[in-house]
Design brief:
It is a single chain. 74% of the residues lie in helices and 0% in strands. It is mostly helical and 521 residues long. It has two domains: 1-196, Up-down Bundle (Growth Hormone, Chain: A); 297-521, Growth Hormone, Chain: A (Up-down Bundle). α1 packs parallel to α7 (131-162) and α6 runs antiparallel to α7 (131-162). The longest helix is centred in the C-terminal third of the chain and has 35 residues, at 475-509.
C-alpha cells in the first residue's frame, strides 16, 4: 500500500489528538450540570463527584506506558485505531449513564482511548519523519494538543448554554468514526514490527499498580482544586494517603527488579551494540516494558527530567490562577469567566509557541530553544510572584501569563524530539509514553507539594493579620480583607517557587547535546 505524504498523516493523527484533548478539559465547565443530572447530593457527595475528573486523569496516565510499548510490538495503526475505538465506546456509554459509577466507567473508557493517542501519535511522527524534521512535526502536534485544551472549556460552556452536557459525547461519536476511517486508511503504509514480541505482563501489572496508587494518593492530597480559597481548606483533614504511597513505592521497586532481570535476559534490536551475551532462555523471556538502557542514551535522561519539572510548574499556573481570581472576585460566575480568559492568554500563547519551537529546534537544536523556553517560564512566574496583588489589573496578569505560555510552548518540541530521536526504532512508543507520563506525574507531584507548602504558609501568615476588636463594626470587613490579601500573597509565593523550579529545569537542560542532523543546512 502506498503511504500518504507525512503532512497528511500528521493531520490525521492531530485530528484524533485534538478530539481527545478537548475531552480532557471540556468537563470542567459541565461539572455543575452533570452533578445535578446524576443526582449527586451536595456537599456530602463532593468527594464522589471529584472522581468525574480524577478517574479520567488516572486512567489517562496509567495507560500511556503500556500502550506506547504495545504500539512498538503490534504496530502503530492497530493500536491507534484501537484507541479511537475505546474512545468511541466511552463516548457512546457516558450520555446514557444513569448514575455516577456507570458514568465513571464510561469516562475511564474515553480516558484509556484518549491517553493512548498522544504517545502513539508521537511515535508515528517519529516513524514517518526523518530526524531533522521531527521537531517541527512534534511542535505542530503539541500546538494542536494545546489548542484542544483551550477549546474544551469554551466548547463545554457553549454546549451547556444551548444544549446539554450529553451532546459533548453524542458529537464525539461521528468524530470518532471519521477518525477511525481516516487513521485506518492513512496509517496503512507505516512500517510494521520486524518480529512479534511477547508482552511483559508482569512488569506492566507492577507499573500500573505503582502509577495507580501514586496518582490516587497525590490527587487525594490536592483537595485545593475543589475549594474557593485556602481558608476553606485550612481546617479540613486530609485523607491518610501514606499506605498508598508505600504501596506505590513497593510496586515501583518490584517493577524495577522485573525490568532489570528481563533486560539482562533480552538484547533487543535497538540495542544491537550491547555486548552482553544472550541468555540461553531469551526466546521464552519477553522484552522489558521499559528497557533502562534508554536512560543511558544521548539526551534521553535530561529531556524526561525537564518534562517532569515543567509538569510540576504548569499545574501551578492552571490551578492557582483560578484560585486567586476566586479570592479576588466575589461573583462566582464572573470569577469563572475571568479565570478562563486569563488562562486562555497562557494556552493560546503556548499553542503558537509550540509550533514555532519546532521550527526553531530544526534550525538551532534542542538546547537553545529549550533554554529560551525555560527562561521565559522563569520570567513569567517571577513577574507573577513579585507583582500580583488583589489590585493588579487583569490586563497585566494576562501579559504575564502570555509570557509564561510562550515559555511552556517553546519547550514542547525540543524535549519531545530529543526523547524520540534518542530512542531506538523499536522503543519509540514506550519513549513517547514515558515523556508524557513523567510530565503528568510532575503535575500531580507539583500540585500536591506546593498545595501542602501553601497551606502551611497560609496558616502561619493568617496569625499575623491585624484585626480590630471583635465588637468593632469594621471587624468583618478587616477579616475578609486580611484573608484575601494573605491568600493572594501565599499564591504569589507559589509562583516564585515555580520560577525556581523552572530555573532548575534550565540547569538540567544544559545537559542536552546537539545531534548531527540538527545542523544548519
Amino acid at each position: 500500500m502506498r503511504r500518504p505524504p507525512p503532512s497528511l498523516i500528521l493531520a490525521v493523527v492531530a485530528f484524533g489528538v485534538f478530539v481527545a484533548a478537548d475531552d480532557l478539559t471540556v468537563v470542567s465547565t459541565m461539572l455543575r450540570q452533570i452533578i445535578f443530572d446524576l443526582e449527586i447530593p451536595l456537599p456530602d457527595g463532593l468527594d464522589d463527584a471529584a472522581w468525574i475528573v480524577n478517574a479520567y486523569l488516572i486512567a489517562y496516565v496509567v495507560v500511556m506506558p503500556f500502550v506506547g510499548r504495545l504500539s512498538d510490538i503490534l504496530g502503530r495503526r492497530a493500536v491507534y485505531v484501537g484507541a479511537l475505538f475505546l474512545f468511541l465506546a466511552g463516548s457512546i456509554w457516558v450520555p446514557f449513564a444513569p448514575n455516577l459509577p456507570t458514568f465513571i466507567v464510561g469516562r475511564v473508557l474515553t480516558a484509556l482511548g484518549g491517553g493512548a493517542m498522544v504517545p502513539v501519535g508521537m511515535a508515528i511522527l517519529g516513524d514517518i519523519y526523518e530526524p531533522r524534521r521531527r521537531a517541527s512535526a512534534l511542535g505542530a502536534l503539541g500546538a494542536v494538543d494545546t489548542a484542544g485544551w483551550v477549546w474544551g472549556p469554551l466548547y463545554g460552556a457553549l454546549l451547556i448554554r444551548y444544549l446539554t452536557w450529553r451532546w459533548q459525547f453524542y458529537l464525539n461519536i461521528p468524530l470518532s468514526l471519521v477518525g477511525i476511517a481516516a487513521a485506518w486508511w492513512a496509517l496503512g503504509g507505516l512500517p510494521r514490527p520486524a518480529r512479534r514480541e511477547r508482552i511483559d505482563w508482569l512488569g506492566t501489572a507492577a507499573l500500573t499498580a505503582a502509577l495507580l496508587a501514586l496518582n490516587v494518593a497525590l490527587l487525594n492530597s490536592s483537595d485545593i482544586q475543589s475549594v474557593g480559597s485556602l481558608a476553606d481548606l485550612s481546617g479540613q483533614q486530609s485523607p491518610n494517603t501514606l499506605p498508598l504511597y508505600i504501596l506505590s513505592a513497593v510496586c515501583l521497586v518490584l517493577f524495577i527488579a522485573i525490568e532489570r532481570t528481563l533486560t539482562r535476559h533480552h538484547t533487543g534490536p535497538g540495542f544491537a551494540l550491547d555486548t552482553t551475551p544472550p541468555h540461553p532462555h531469551t526466546p521464552t523471556s519477553p522484552p522489558p516494558l521499559i528497557d533502562f538502557r534508554l536512560f543511558t542514551r544521548r539526551n534521553f535522561t535530561p529531556a524526561v527530567l525537564v518534562n517532569f519539572l515543567i509538569g510540576s510548574t504548569l499545574i501551578i499556573a492552571v490551578v492557582n490562577v483560578p484560585l486567586l481570581i476566586n479570592v479576588i472576585e466575589f461573583d462566582v460566575e464572573q470569577a469563572a469567566v475571568t479565570s478562563g480568559w486569563l488562562l486562555s492568554a497562557m494556552t493560546a500563547s503556548m499553542a503558537v509557541a509550540a509550533y514555532a519551537g519546532g521550527r526553531l529546534t530544526e534550525r538551532w537544536g534542542y538546547r537553545p530553544v529549550a533554554l529560551a523556553g525555560l527562561l521565559a517560564c522563569a520570567v513569567g512566574f517571577s513577574l507573577m510572584g513579585s507583582s500580583w496583588t488583589a489590585a493588579t489589573p487583569y490586563q497585566q496578569m494576562a501579559w504575564h501569563l502570555a509570557i509564561l505560555g510562550l515559555g511552556f510552548g517553546l519547550v514542547i518540541a525540543p524535549i519531545g524530539a530529543a526523547v524520540i530521536n534518542a530512542a531506538p526504532e523499536d522503543q519509540r512508543g514506550i519513549a513517547s509514553g514515558l515523556v508524557i507520563v513523567l510530565r503528568l506525574i510532575g503535575m500531580s507531584v507539583g500540585l500536591s507539594g506546593l498545595t501542602a507548602w501553601g497551606l502551611h504558609r497560609f496558616n502561619v501568615l493568617r496569625t499575623l493579620i491585624e484585626l480590630p476588636p471583635l465588637d468593632d463594626p469594621g471587624f468583618q470587613t478587616a477579616l475578609i480583607e486580611g484573608l484575601t490579601n494573605t491568600t493572594v500573597a501565599v499564591l504569589a509565593e507559589t509562583f516564585l517557587v515555580s520560577a525556581g523550579l523552572a530555573l532548575l529545569a534550565l540547569l538540567v537542560a544544559l545537559a542536552l547535546r546537539r545531534d548531527t542532523f540538527t545542523a544548519d543546512h
